[in-house]
Amino acid sequence: MPFSTIIDDLAERGWSLQSAFLAHDVTQKLADECRRRYAEGTLAPAGVGRGEEQAVREGIRGDHIHWLEEGQAEVCDAYLALMDELRQTLNRELFLGLEEFECHFALYPPGAFYQTHLDRFRDDDSRCVTAVVYLNPDWQPADGGELRMHLADGSSLDIPPLAGNLLMFLSGDFPHEVLVTQTDRLSLTGWFRRRPVDVLAL
Ligand code: OGA
Ligand code: MN
């Protein structure tokens, strides 16, 4: 079954890393789209927090983002279709009840980072599984920008943002951070969501 190692990894340890998840030409086209949008100014400094409390804080995160919408580019639509297949597989195999996938391009210019955080808001647990694909074909260890995942046993894991790598993890279980990058660091970061539980209505 396609995606079977992802399913097994998530079930056993809550995270999965797939190298070469996307073909080289696909990551190339996604990277081109991200750079083109950055150059034309459609990527905006990312905010921290939710709703009216959202604010840009470069001391917490320094990336620029652009949310994907259907119909903006063929390669983006192909990626969204692939992730929808993955969403259906996750539901079938792990009974997660995921209803949608949202994702954004992110570009971290040199010097940018993202401090340790969880991908869940205090008042909204609808983000269930995080999925990041990296778009940096020439990434070298000296470039930095690793995703550092903090595991429950106190150890940590550094994931290089190398083109085609897909990292997935349960959004509420792993604090993580993006280490300072020395060069432009491109990714497509997304979340599989279920409907938020309305605690007030319980
Ligand atoms: C995020 C995030 C990780 C990465 O955007 O919430 O943690 O490797 N991104 O880009
Ligand atoms: Mn995150």
Automatic annotation (TrEMBL):
SMART domains noted in UniProt: P4Hc
Cofactor: L-ascorbate
Gene Ontology molecular function, alphabetical: ferrous iron binding; L-ascorbic acid binding; peptidyl-proline dioxygenase activity
GO biological process, one term: cellular response to hypoxia
Residues passing through the membrane, by range: none
Alphabetic keyword roster: Dioxygenase, Iron, Metal-binding, Oxidoreductase, Vitamin C
Pfam families xrefs: 2OG-FeII_Oxy_3
Lipid metabolism in keyword set: no
Entry-linked InterPro entries: HIF_prolyl_hydroxylases, Oxoglu/Fe-dep_dioxygenase_dom, Pro_4_hyd_alph, Pro_4_hyd_alph_FE2OG_OXY
Fe2OG dioxygenase domain location: 99-194
Signal peptide boundaries: none
Name recorded for this polypeptide: 2OG-Fe(II) oxygenase
Record organism: Stutzerimonas stutzeri (Pseudomonas stutzeri)
